[in-house]
Amino acid sequence: MTSADLFARARQLIPGGVNSPVRAFRSVGGAPFFVKSAQGATLTTADDRELIDFVCTWGPAIHGHNHPLIRQAIAAALERGTSFGTPNPLEVDMAEMITRFVPSIQKVRLCNSGTEATMSAIRLARGFTRRDKIIKFSGCYHGHSDSLLIKAGSGALTHGNPDSAGVPASFARETIVLPYNDAAAVEAAFAAHPGEIAAVIVEPYPANVGLILPLPGYLAALRAACTRAGALLIFDEVMTGFRLAKGGVQEIEGITPDLTTLGKIIGGGLPVGAFGGRADVMDHLAPLGPVYQAGTLSGNPLAMAAGIAALRLLETENPYERLAALGRQVRDTLLDATRAKGLPAQVPQTGSMFCLYFSAKPVHSYADALQSDAALFGRFFHACLARGVYLPPSAYEACFLSTAHEGSMIDRACERMHDALLSL
Ligand code: KE4
User: Fold this and answer.
1) How many CB atoms sit inside 10 A of residue 312's CB?
2) Hey, where are the domains in the chain?
């Protein structure tokens, strides 16, 4: 069956024909392709097209798709069964690795998605501080739990508005949404709500809005404001954890959050999320404390085996400088091509993450990102796809690289993206 046949069937059975909205290509136009297999840096579609993949299943595939050591680890675990519903040795190994990689995580709880991780971290912060309000930032995405599907309200310092149907206004009232990279806005929000704010949750490098990097001192200002106010600082590193450094952004920036949320890479391609941090906070979780959190498949041995293999590979290969070199090569290609074409462009890049904004001004916030030319990005997306390069199907996502992109693969991809830009 071709992608078109599959999509026609899927739309009869699955809303929009997809199990996650971004896959539907709504913001770039056209119909999504279906993938039947993936290997290294390439996807093979149901139409037998080979695509060089810059989505990497939205982050997990840092070692490329279907890595033999991860596959072997899953196969070995499979011999012993898939899920026991009891404690198992692999979840202890995973917990030891996470706490070793990320020193701020003294204790960790495993779950099954990034959404579960952030939802649980928010509940834990509220339970620990006995406060109800939280602060999040425009353009940051933390999964689809009700308290986090909130957009900025009219009175920025008061409360947010639901960012989805089905989220009660009463929930939105407990979430304050502020602009990222504006330390004064955080100070003002704490001043306006003394003793009421349980936590600040932030993607330290927002990557669900393209890619935005913090202005100097911004993350330190968040840390100081939370400490002064007795609120918890939650780093949502579901995307950046283990991707930019073994210890994530908090290692790069030297900032210690109270809680960290994780996902993607720690599942090695299977469903895993995690949240962890200060032991005195984590011990408020059931069965020790009053904050309930649970999951049938949390810590299941198959996903643990895949995630442990992925983390072990990071430990043995330490690929971060190699990945950053790939990122710089793509950045330089995109800047050269847009300059040659006379197109205004910003290409923020850090390690193996980058994005392309068609914008004349640097992007420091969600508002800045919205001023970029999303329609032109859609044309660039399809020009790349026509040349066998798959970028995230949205102007407001980050691109990912893997160790499988090294060598001729990245050269080929850069040539094709350069050609795609000149064709616009
Ligand atoms: P999941 O529930 O999708 O596993 O994780 C939610 C989440 C939480 N925090 C951050 C920083 C995230 O990036 C995500 C999920 N990222 C998107 C990519 N933009 C997942 C892709 C999708 O929704 O299909």
Assistant:
1) 16
2) 3-62+319-422, 68-316
Residue type, 398: A
What is the pLDDT, as a whole number, of residue 158?
73
Least Cα distance to 236 among 215, 207, 216 occurs for 207
CA angle, residues 24, 372, 423, in degrees to nearest 5: 75
CA 105 remoteness from chain centre: 19
CATH number at 3-62+319-422: 3.90.1150.10
What separation in Å is there between the alpha carbon of 268 and the centre of ligand 1? 15
pLDDT at 156: 62
pLDDT, tens only, 305-323: 999 999 999 999 999 999 9
Catalytic residues: 141, 236, 264
**Spans in the chain with pLDDT lower than 70:** 155-156
Residue with CA at minimum distance from ligand 1 atom 1: 114
What is the distance between the alpha carbons of residues 81 and 102, in angstroms, rounded to a whole number?
30
With H, G, I as helix, E, B as strand and everything else as coil, classify residue 198. strand
The CATH code of the domain at 68-316 is: 3.40.640.10
CB atoms within 10 A of CB 252: 17
Nearest-CA residue for atom 5 of ligand 1? 114
What is the whole-number distance in angstroms between the Cα of residue 15 and the centre of ligand 1?
A: 19
Torsion-angle region of 156 (φ positive above 0: left; ψ -120 to 50: alpha; else: beta): alpha
pLDDT given for residue 159 in this prediction: 79
How confident is the model at residue 155, as a pLDDT? 66
